[in-house]
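Suppose a colleague, Dr. K., hands you the sequence of a protein chain of 126 amino acids and asks what its three-dimensional shape might be. Before reaching for any lab equipment, you can write down a predicted structure in token form. Begin with the sequence itself:
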Amino acid sequence: MKTQKSFFEQNGGTYTQVGDVLLPNLTIGEDGQQPIGKYGRMRKRYLKERHPVLYSELLLSGKLYSHLLEIDEACEGRMEFLTRQMAKQEGVTEALKAANQMEWVRRMNSIRNRAEEIALHELVYC
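The predicted structure, expressed as tokens, is then:
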């Protein structure tokens, strides 16, 4: 008599029998993996709270880590691009930094905050 494979087995998963119970053989990441940054952790929390099904699918398929790392790197890159673009557009230059450092810091902080909000809405909270 042939038994039907579970969804987990059909996707390459295996079980170990412990007493009368079959436990799935799950592993958590590899040693030496790059740590997930701020934006990857924010994405993880968002998925857990707002999209638990997608979070579970990514976790069980082993794609969660790569997804979070990709989001983190994309967010960092997007913020860097937006910051440079906004600073150029608003005339925040090295000359301003040399002439009035406090004004330069104030304006750069404003630009970074706006760039972060844009990146969060485009990549993390979508």
